[in-house]
Write a structure and sequence with these properties.
The chain has one domain. The chain contains 9 helices and no strands. It has helices at 4-40, 48-76, 87-110, 114-132, 147-150, 153-169, 171-176, 178-208, 215-219. The two termini are 32 Å apart. Bound molecules: protoporphyrin IX containing FE (HEM) (2 copies). Residues 27-28, 31-32, 34-35, 38, 49, 52-53, 56-57, 59-60, 164, 167-168, 171, 174-175, 181, 184-185, 188, 191-192 line the site of one protoporphyrin IX containing FE. The site of one protoporphyrin IX containing FE has 26 residues, from α1, α2, α6 and α8.
Length: 238
């Protein structure tokens, strides 16, 4: 049976599947059409470029939102709030960073001048990374020279958030300058690969995270030897 806390953990994957990936499909299609129209003079409506960037902005906002949601759930659901490690000051700080990151996203959306756009995108990204570095967030590996780092759902998410914010921050420049457009396309081809990697590492994590009431049993398993204690009821009779 799923308890309320399990539903909270499910919110992030559900929003990724129902909102982020469908949006990604549309953004990719419109980006391809914008390029096709510009390079091959294909007969496509002149709005494809603008539609791509408009939906791209929603895609970026959706990615930041589901990442902040996942981080909030992971950090705040680990312990009863009354026994939060670090006490009230740390809890207040975590909430402040969550709020600050969300606010930076809203301000980035509205900012016009290049300095403000750069500032708010960096602030928002810094908030995501700060929250990700909290002890409650499981990160597989932190060393880029080891395979575990590249399989980490958190580091993939942090990189992807950065690339999405970079596109939103540079939107006017991408529209105006060929050099920026080239940088944008290369950066976002990488982003597309990371989206694919997130789909794989995210579903893998879903398979590995047990329901709340099953956690004590699963935590008793030996992760090095891939064995779990066998309960007397399920042990094979001699
Ligand atoms: C997976 C993500 C993305 C991919 C693969 C992608 C790809 C592309 C491609 C192929 C183009 C056409 C470039 C050309 O004409 O040579 C383009 C243009 C553009 N993209 Fe993206 N993009 C992505 C996300 C975003 C996001 C998040 C934004 C943020 C607002 C954005 C803003 C723009 C802008 C402003 C243009 C120029 C459109 C124009 O005026 O013609 N893109 N993108
Ligand atoms: C746009 C793609 C995605 C991004 C950027 C992203 C990013 C993140 C981040 C930053 C976290 C918190 C760190 C962690 O606990 O590892 C997280 C948690 C998690 N993600 Fe994703 N993720 C994405 C897609 C998915 C998908 C498609 C699934 C599964 C269907 C998934 C399943 C999970 C699970 C199970 C967690 C643990 C915490 C929770 O459920 O709230 N993610 N994700």
């Amino acid at each position: 049976m799923l308890q309320s806390i399990d539903w909270l953990w499910l919110l992030h994957p559900v929003l990724a599947v129902a909102v982020v990936y469908p949006l990604l499909g549309m953004v990719l299609r419109l980006g391809y059409q914008a390029r096709d129209r510009r390079i091959n003079q294909t007969k496509l409506p002149p709005t494809v470029g603008r539609d791509h960037a408009d939906l791209g902005r929603w895609l970026a906002a959706a990615v930041v939102a589901i990442v902040l949601l996942a981080l909030a759930v992971v950090i705040l659901s680990g312990h009863p709030l009354a026994a939060f490690p670090g006490g009230l000051p740390r809890l207040a700080l975590v909430l402040l960073v969550l709020l600050g990151s969300s606010l930076a996203l809203v301000l980035l959306w509205r900012a016009k001048s290049p300095a403000y756009r750069a500032c708010f995108s960096l602030l928002c990204w810094a908030g995501v990374i700060t929250l990700g570095l909290q002890g409650e967030v499981y990160r597989l590996g932190d060393n880029p020279f080891q395979g575990a780092f590249w399989q980490s759902h958190f580091w993939g998410g942090a990189g992807l958030t950065g690339l999405m914010l970079f596109s939103v921050a540079g939107r006017p420049e991408i529209s105006r300058h060929l050099r920026w457009r080239r940088l944008h396309v290369s950066a976002n081809l990488l982003a597309t690969l990371i989206f694919l990697a997130q789909a794989i590492s995210g579903t893998r994590d879903l398979l590995e995270i047990p329901l709340n009431w099953q956690k004590p049993a699963i935590q008793a398993c030996d992760y090095q030897r891939n064995t779990c204690p066998v309960s007397p009821a399920s042990a094979p009779s001699p």
